[in-house]
Design goal:
Elements (H helix, E strand, L loop, with lengths): L1 H11 L8 E7 L9 H14 L1 E12 L6 H10 L3 E7 L3 H6 L6 H13 L5 E7 L6 H14 L3 E6 L7 H7 L8 H17 L3 E4 L2 E3 L6 H7 L12 E3 L3 E5 L3 H9 L5 E5 L2 H14 L6 H8 L1 H16 L3 E4 L2 E4 L7 H8 L2
Parallel strand pairs: 1-2, 2-3, 3-4, 4-5
Antiparallel strand pairs: 5-7, 6-7, 8-9, 9-10, 11-12
Helix pairs in contact: 1-2, 1-10, 2-3, 6-8, 11-14, 12-13
Length: about 350
């Protein structure tokens, strides 16, 4: 039923994007790696029915390591998947068990090696720092293992604890203790230092890649390109508004089947657009371009930006590079605060 709804939503929203030429397709959110090749082919077929997919398109699938058997990987390759984003999180079994992950460290390593063996070289892995009991030594070992696997892309995120999760329960009952802020900062600094030694480019706060291997799909989000998202919880953006599909699977399927999709729309004000540009720009290696601010938002906004940025430039948190305002290594530790101080 969900696959039917996804395909029907693509039919319903085929005109959302003015540009029918797609350079990226991304299967994400939840566990798309559990989809069969028949289901993936059906979705891809529906996309091709309404859009033209470039011959060199980046087609990514998020995957759990334990789903990536040799047979599964061959099926994914046959479907056209040419990039994998593998949710490894840690190479230590005790951490994986604490996070309630279903895979083991051995499966994590094996999933990457098996993918490489069948010819899928464009692989990103996710790691998490700021975990309970994550020492400097364990974090260094996680990074070392990632480098040994030879993946060209690494995403690393600080642990966030959501309500109604096992982690939140353990925290409230005192079964786990989170590291101090200084320890988490040290782990992020280690991350920046060690990836740079290995030739990775820190192109977005949480993302690191070898030359030319950045996520083309995610980079389109950060550079303001328009995109269509289908499925429960999916987000879409057309430059004027953002659309958010209902998160509940049953409500999503019911709405699509009745021809009345369940979603919310946020019409973006000029202030929204400006603040989003500042936030996403500062998070990336491309930074904030004064010319873009001036042409898209006016001289008054540009003057306000320059005035607000000056104290951070003086403090060494922001710098000019190729006529753009970017965060320094020190400034990356304060990215959210700096961005909010530059908002209107």
């Amino acid at each position: 039923m969900l696959i039917d709804a996804l395909c029907n939503e693509i039919d319903l929203r085929k005109d959302y994007l003015e540009n029918k030429n797609l350079t990226t397709v991304y299967f994400g959110g939840g566990t798309p790696s559990i989809l069969s090749s028949e289901e993936l082919n059906r979705i891809m077929g529906k996309v091709k029915e309404h859009f033209l997919i470039a011959s060199d398109a980046e087609i990514t699938l998020e995957a759990n390591p334990d789903d990536l058997t040799e047979q599964k990987l061959n099926e994914l390759k046959a479907v056209g998947i040419n990039r994998l984003s593998i949710g490894i999180q840690s190479f230590f079994n005790e951490d994986l068990e604490r996070m309630n992950r279903s895979h083991s460290a051995e499966q994590a390593i094996g999933s990457v090696k098996n993918a490489q063996a069948i010819g899928i070289k464009n692989i990103s892995i996710d790691l998490i720092y700021g975990l309970p009991n994550l020492t400097k030594e364990k974090w260094a070992a996680n990074l070392e293992q990632a480098f040994k696997l030879g993946v060209p892309h690494l995403s690393a995120y600080c642990l966030t604890i959501e309500e109604k999760t096992a982690f939140n329960h353990f925290l409230k009952t005192g079964k786990i203790i989170l590291p101090k802020e200084a320890e988490t900062i040290e782990q992020f600094e280690m991350l920046m230092c060690e990836t740079e030694k290995q030739g990775f480019i820190h192109y977005e706060i949480s993302n690191f890649c070898k030359e030319g291997m950045q996520s083309r799909h995610n980079s389109s989000y950060w550079t303001g390109e328009h995109y269509l998202g289908v499925g429960p919880s999916a987000h879409s953006y057309n430059g004027v508004s953002r659309q958010f599909n209902v998160a509940n699977n049953n409500k999503y399927i019911k709405g699509i089947s009745e021809g009345t999709p369940d979603f919310e729309i946020e019409i973006l004000t000029e202030a929204n657009k400006y603040n989003e540009y500042i936030m996403t720009g500062l998070r990336t290696i491309w930074g904030v371009n004064p010319g873009t601010v001036s042409s898209n938002f006016g001289e008054e906004k540009l003057n306000g930006l320059m005035n607000s940025a000056e104290p951070y430039i003086a403090a060494g948190d922001l710098q000019w590079k190729q006529d753009c305002l970017i965060l320094t290594q020190k400034g990356k530790l304060l990215a959210d605060k700096i961005a909010s101080d530059l908002f209107v």
